[in-house]
Amino acid sequence: MNEKKLQAKDFITIGIFTALLFVVEFACGMLGFIHPYIVASYVVMIPIVGSIPMMLFYTKIEKFGMLSIMSVLLAIIMFVTGMGYLGAPLIIAAGVIADLIAKSGGYKSFRETVISYGVFCLWICANYFPVVVSADSYRKNLIDVGYSVEYCDNLFRAINSKTIAVLLVLCFVFGCVGALIGKAIVKKHFEKAGIV
Amino acid sequence: MSLKLDPRTKLYMIFVVSAVVMMSATTPFLWAVRIIMIPIFLLIMEKHYAAAFRFLIFYGTALLLTFKFLSENSEGFLSAFLVGYCGIIVQFMPAMITAWYVVRTTKIGEFVCAMQKMHIPDGITISLAVVMRFFPTIKEEYTAIRDAMKMRGIMLGGGNAAGMIEYRLIPLLFSCVNIGDELSAAAVTRGLGGKVKRTSVQELKMKAADYLLMLLFTAVLVVFVVSKYIR
Amino acid sequence: MMQTIAQINNVTHRYKGAAENSLDGVSLTIKKGETLLLCGASGSGKTSVIRLLNGLIPHYYHGDMTGDVTVNGLDIVETQLYELAGVVGTVFQNPRSQFFSVDTDGEIVFGPENIGLAPKEINARKEIITKQMNLDSLLGRSLFELSGGEKQRIACASEAALLPEIILLDEPSSNLDMEAIKMLHEIICDWKRQGKTIIISEHRLWYLNDIADRVVYMDNGRIAHEWNAKDFTMLSDDETRQLGLHPTSINERYLALLSDKDDTGKCYIDIADGILLKDFYFSYHHKPYILRKNKFSAADGDSLSLCIPKLMLPKGKVTAVIGSNGTGKSTFLRCICGLEKDCTGVIVSKGKEYRKRQRIGFSYMVMQDVNHQLFTDSVEKELLLSMKVKDVKRCHEILDTLGLLEFKDTHPMALSGGQKQRVAIASAIAAGAKLLLFDEPTSGLDFAHMEKVGELLRQLADSGSTVLVSTHDPEFIEQCCDYTLRIKKGRLFSFEERNS
Prior knowledge:
C: Rossmann fold, 6-stranded mixed β-sheet, CHP02185_IM (chain A), transmembrane helix (chain A), transmembrane (chain A), membrane (chain A)
């Protein structure tokens, strides 16, 4: 009966991969300041780069809860590192749904894993929440603060309440694409080396 | 002897700092409030005077740049570039320094105890403790991998972007998985994950300094909100 | 008649996914209060025996297992791991990965907190252990800044805080220097005096001479020999060599090689055809600066963690770099190969100067943890990555000389530790490096593997490369090094030819 519950080893695995995923996210996030369009391209970059640790993580998942806890941790870390707390509900929702999907595939099915990771990637959109929730005042603020109109226009052309839907879809799509790439890399390295 | 704070105070500090950072400041007065907020004093408390000074200079320059040179008309790639960097410094550095301070000064034991007191489930607490334990490990491993890459002359991935990511990430994952395995083996042999409720030797008590800081931070938050939205 | 505290009864075990049995019909009875030494080559099953006793087999490392294990009256198969926490304590091999906390205090109390002791009791235990083990100077520090030896002491303290009856040590000295091993020896002696049952799996045998009551030799998952302490120490070096073991004692000559002498020897050897190192100054504590870093020079004096104005390395020879941990050996090697870019040293060879980045092409370091140095998904690609001009034929030649050709399509991470090391060496050769640096290549190796590394280094030197190797193993220096270079506090202390 103990097999169903998460054990210390699982919690440690979650911790390690959360740390890794966050480092990936952070490294990609840093690029975003170079040009506003890059901010929008998070939806491509993070799912694909993040897929490598995540697909390895998926091979270690056997029980329900690991993805959900990971999303809670991500929400907490986003908060602690000063990236805001508005996105927390989205992050956690994405995590739990991804967990449920993966569970329906018994955590082993190829198709469910891909879809599950696609859903999980929606958490990335939490980065855009401050922009979407308070788009108008945020824009005004940015201009007041001294950001150029050009930057803001670029930013809002790329990210607004209409495009957020597009971004969510993109996140999902590139999540799935990323999952395929990540799977391939796990196969190329970790399976070949006999780790998984 | 540096100041010892309750982790809960620290969490509150982060909350306030990130809230203030998110509500963009518009007037010089608000900027001033923000600068006070900015944990320069945290750096000083940790005796990183040079870092505090450097940060002050960066921050000042960034402000000056944003106010003076980057007007609504500034265009072109260079200004977008500058805006980008000023953005990093102004928007994220304060929160990141606070986070750095918290991670640096909080012992995992303390943190875990604070989490327990806030009635957060053990599973999340343990995972989060591992996350905190693992950031320095990732840094160590990554430094070693980067050294190895330098020696091989493959910092740029042998010419392709995929290589740049692959050569960094794959060895990192291998080491982290290994370390993780050994870490959990060592942890479970010392009783982690048992049925008994974990105890904690840390005694967490809110002291005068905690209340004072909380008050200070609340005051700053109030001043900020009032002068931004109500005045 | 002594009481039996642990019993392994005809256990056969195979790790999940493994092709061969890790243990093959092992039976072992351990008496209360005895100190047992497990020796044997890598992969002979020593670690598996340790894992049987602490329950990691079958609860953590899954696989097929038959037979039964009883520890302190508990049937291991039926007992959960956390129930064993106060009964069996384990000190692991790698000091880097076995701690859970970030700080020393938290680590010592980690176990007692897990089993839910009252805070008062935990603090009392911590105090006693701190006193017993002299840990005052280590309290309140970050584990990430401790040396390997200090980390290992904290690991011991963390186990001791659970007051286990049985203490297991799995190759605890692998990453330690002479001083730290002596410290470890003290700790184990203390435990022995307290009447604990101690089981040590180890390659280095000399420091356990006066501790072990009984020695078990494992080979291929079986118990092949058993000696009592007296018979074991009588084994000659030839006999131990045949068994693939390190010598049971290191004689005076060996000790003199590694002990911290105070007299300065000759520091400069004038060789016509050598590699000259000039102006190697470096410190980890850079001078306070605002925006621009300052370069180091001899004028910085005592604050330098590395200060080597001039050194002539003999070409085509193997030079051992010795000195205790944290005294600047690794820093020295890192500076030579140009990894510390704040170090301004110059390498001169055949009248050509190599500065900064050029040093990287000229020299190549094989790191202590070779896992960091392997990037691709096959051994062949690994070598090609190092070559400026991809030459598959030469790549195969190099692999052939190192005996790796049959693995050319294998993933480097699937290889054994020794093979990985050879892959790293192969890529150094492929990169065309003339000066090869090795950072403690022998730590944690059994005798047979250590000898292999020695032969390989000789082979490299004979084919014209200059080899610099840092090590703590006197047997190894004896076997393959032509010169010894002693470093103390980042200064050249002596540089001598070994009169063989």
